[in-house]
Design goal:
This protein has about 290 residues and is an alpha/beta fold. The chain contains 11 helices and 10 strands. The longest helix has 13 residues.
Length: about 290
């Protein structure tokens, strides 16, 4: 007799304050047949805080074994198991393990549901003081400087508010790169240790935030950056045009290509950008 397929439950976990855990999370932890956890030690602390004793089998499911363990969990689902997926904080599959398992379950036409929970993305947006009617989540930027600049160039003209995760030891470099590509006066907010004892929201222009971060920042970080302002071609002075060309050159573009790209995105003739670059070059600035 063929077993009735089980169900995959993605469970959001607190991003700081454990009392933020929804009641359903405790129910699912207690009743799941299999619990796939990013860190089994952190899972143990969570269940103890919630007064829950899991009855199911607990397995690790993190970036290093996600590919290998996914087939095993799919087999459990096909066998009728209720599989609960939890990560260290927040929602599984959002810059955390889980996407591969969800995709594999959907491909096999298995049911997937969720226990909504706290979100660092939405919490940071709400606290940032920046427009939140339209936004896009960009996850983590690349670690390599050139790739990071290239990725930022892709969103330089994005009008929606941008949300990023970042490691504390890379925050100063990231904010400096953002100031260089997006403009030092672009408004932003660094949200640190959300919902925890030492929660801090630092708001200001990217240039000032980069200087602040250079002194050293600790904790879990979410960065919110305002979208590009509406600007007509007449508002882009020569210095701004040259800055954009320089950013593209540093990311690996040839000057001719950089000038053409900047002219296209600014709605200006290539000659206007070229003349600005030549003027700065003659002055010894490029």
């Amino acid at each position: 007799m063929t077993a009735t397929p089980g169900i995959l439950v993605l469970a959001g976990t607190p991003i700081g304050d454990l009392s933020d855990a929804p009641p359903r999370l405790a129910e699912e932890l207690a009743g799941a047949d299999v619990i796939a956890a990013e860190d089994t030690r952190r899972l143990r602390r969570l269940t103890q805080a919630l007064g829950v004793t899991p009855k199911g089998r607990v397995v690790s499911y993190f970036e290093g074994n996600e590919t290998a363990r996914t087939p095993e969990l799919v087999e459990a689902l096909l066998g009728g198991a209720r599989v609960l997926l939890v990560t260290d904080a927040g929602m599984p599959s959002v810059s955390d393990p889980g996407y591969r398992l969800v995709a594999a379950a959907v491909e096999r036409d298995l049911k997937v549901t969720a226990v909504p929970g706290p979100s660092a993305v939405l919490t940071a947006l709400a606290l940032s003081g920046l427009p939140v009617d339209r936004f896009c989540f960009e996850g983590f930027l690349p670690r390599k400087a050139g790739e990071r600049l290239s990725r930022l160039r892709e969103v330089a003209q994005e009008r929606r508010t941008l949300v990023y995760f970042e490691a504390p030891h890379r925050l100063d470099d990231t904010l400096a790169a953002m100031a260089e590509v997006l403009g030092s006066d672009r408004r932003a907010a660094v949200c640190r240790e959300l919902t925890k004892t030492y929660e801090e929201i630092k708001r200001g222009p990217l240039g000032e935030l980069a200087e602040w971060a250079a002194l050293g920042v600790r904790g879990e970080i979410t960065v919110v950056v305002s979208g590009a302002p509406e600007r007509g071609p007449e508002e882009l002075d020569a210095a701004e045009l040259v800055r954009r060309v320089r950013v593209r050159e540093e990311a690996g573009e040839r000057r001719k290509e950089a000038i053409a790209a900047v002219a296209a995105e600014a709605g200006l003739p290539k000659r206007t950008v070229f003349d600005a670059v030549v003027a700065v070059k003659k002055a010894g600035g490029l």
